[in-house]
Specification:
By secondary structure, the chain is α+β, with helices and mostly antiparallel strands. It folds into 3 domains: 80 residues, Glutamine synthetase, N-terminal domain (Ubiquitin-like (UB roll)), CATH 3.10.20.70; 193 residues, 2-Layer Sandwich (Creatine Kinase, Chain A, domain 2); 112 residues, 2-Layer Sandwich (Creatine Kinase, Chain A, domain 2), CATH 3.30.590. Strands 7, 8, 9, 10, 11, 12, 13 and 14 form an 8-stranded mixed sheet that branches. Strands 1, 2, 3, 4, 5 and 6 form a 6-stranded mixed sheet that branches. A hairpin with a 2-residue loop joins strand 5 and strand 6. Helix 6 packs across helix 9 and helix 10 runs antiparallel to helix 12. The longest helix has 21 residues. The protein is globular, with a radius of gyration of 21 Å.
Amino acid sequence: MTGLQWIQLSFVDVFGMTNSMMLPAGRFEEVSRVGVAFDGSALEGRARHFESNLRLWPDGATLREVGDGLGRVVCNVRTPQGEPWPGDPRTALQIVVDGLDQLSSGLTISTELEFYVLDLDGEPVDRAGYFDDVGGIGAQVLRAAGDALTARGCEVLSGHHEAGPGQYELDLGRCAPVAAADAIVLAKETIRAACAAFGAVATFMPLPFAGAPGSGLHLHQRSPFLLEPSGELTPNGSSYVAGQLAHASGLCAIAAPTVNSYRRLHAGPEAPGAAIWGHESRAALVRVGTDLGSDASIEFRASDTAANAYLLIAALLVAGAAGISDGLQPGPPSDESIGGYDVGASTQRYVSLPRSLDEALDALQADDVLADAFDSTLLMRLVDGRRVEAEDFRATVSEWERERYSGEL
């Protein structure tokens, strides 16, 4: 690729936050062969305790020109000896994909990514609603981000205004699992940059405003192994769905990984609150649109835009594969209440999703299937870092508490 002067080596930490190193383009060929050393403590995120020497290893197939003489390439993290390091989220996903050859072969994932566009005062840039025809900064951001992603080889299917004020959705096309995670990370970077260019700010906070809709990250999983050409679940597909339901509590620690995530879950009919599946209900954790024929998918709806895309996709595959291995069945679909899950009306046993980050982390650690799927150091860093976040939250006095109690006690 000619004309490049610098290469951005992009990688994520255990919490899914993007990190990077800049490299003169003339060094790229050498670094592609032997990697480049960096301070691996960056991967510890908030749980940083020590420094370690690791190496960034570019995946040359992901090199893209991003403008002004700059290229961007996705990297794996390897040991000083050049071996794959399982504490790297991208490597962790690759290990899972390689270990589930029959399941992962032919599997694609498309994504619905929701976010808010805010002005510099932190307020939504518009007051429009679901699929409203709007102009202004939000629409400009959506188009600019879509154009940039398309130019960088990421398929964009569509975009539209979501239900919240200043809330938008960008839909990404079908990719293999690792490429899908790469695309999610790139899309968030690109949306942030597009917002900055228009004097705005993007937030991927799961629920940034009380009383407004939360932002989800819906993953649509498709494979001939899981879905018939008619859109109906295969026997393996039924067990795959059952596996994600059975491991839903532990999955939440990865899919809904922040304190704020649990303000989105259980908040209303647009987000799941129970481990149920259905065909139409927006309250379902897993939704299977069998009436869509070849466009049918297994849609996981509990995840939000704070999730680490690599760990999330890995965990979904592991849970689904466990369902197939154990011969689990999901039971009949729960579509009695299309607008939301009705405990009294449902014929299915009610299994609530975790109501707090602590509860989800406990479930993850108690779930041998999910815990054993990841390197122990990676899992420790993830859990410890999120425990610190939960402790910080508990130590914070909110405005609600001051308003409610300051004059009463």
